[in-house]
Amino acid sequence: LNFLVQGIGGLWTGSLGLVSDSLENLNDAVVNLLALGSIRVANRREPCDRWTYGWHRIEIFNTLLGVLLLVILAGAVLFEAWDRVRHPHAIRLGWAIGFSLVGLVLNLAATFVLVPASGSTQERDLNLRSAYLHALGDSLANVAVLLGMVVIRFTGWKWVDPLLAAGIAMVILRGAFLLLRDAVGILMHRAAFDQEEAKAELLRLPGVTGVEDLRS
């Protein structure tokens, strides 16, 4: 919903900051949908003689597809931002501020819903904590866009809008890099934990005199 509100608002008002913020929300939705889709497909294919581990590695291909999508989106935003720095566009500032406020309210509502209760099992769930922190980050991006519109309103500095869009594009590229790093780590069979730290923990146990190798 926030993607639609800010996307329509950005196109209507001419604000690239709003459009880029909506694309950042869209990329979250697409990445999550790809993850859910890969889980459904993987669970429908049982391991067999031909597919030793089933289709669970399809998650990696979906991740790489998501990375490609993020790079394309960020590249398009950066290209348009550079063009608007050289050739500023008119912005319907009153409407842009209004759409920014609506987007902020929606993101704050999502953040409030995802706040884990103190002492609950949800507080220890890494996925829920990650979703909460991401919603909080989206809210902060909304605040930045809103403040940017206010600055433009009182100063006339139209370059602030493409600057905000470029900043959000860099956030999208950072997300793409982290996804790519995780995908490559899985393909290269990177250890899922710090082995030296695990060895140190084991050596502190009573009766353990040495740890040779943790790999199986």
Describe the structure.
The structure is a single chain. The protein is mainly α and 216 residues long. Helix content is 74%, strand content 0%. The chain is built from seven helices and no strands. It has helices spanning 2-13, 16-44, 58-86, 93-114, 126-155, 160-187, 195-203. Helix 1 (2-13) runs antiparallel to helix 2 and helix 3 (58-86) runs antiparallel to helix 6. It is elongated. The N and C termini lie far apart (46 Å). The relative contact order is 0.15.
Quick overview:
With 216 residues, this protein is an all-alpha fold.
Separation, N- and C-terminal Cα atoms: 46 Å
In DSSP terms (H or I, runs of 4 or more residues), the helix count works out at 7
- Give the proportion of residues in helices: over 70%
Q: What is the mean predicted local confidence, pLDDT? A: 77
Coarse structural class? mainly alpha
- Low-confidence stretches at least 5 residues in length (pLDDT < 50)? none
Shape: elongated
Number of strands: 0
β-sheet strand percentage: under 5%
From N to C, what is the helix and strand string?
HHHHHHH
Q: Give the C-alpha Rg.
A: 22 Å
Largest sheet: none
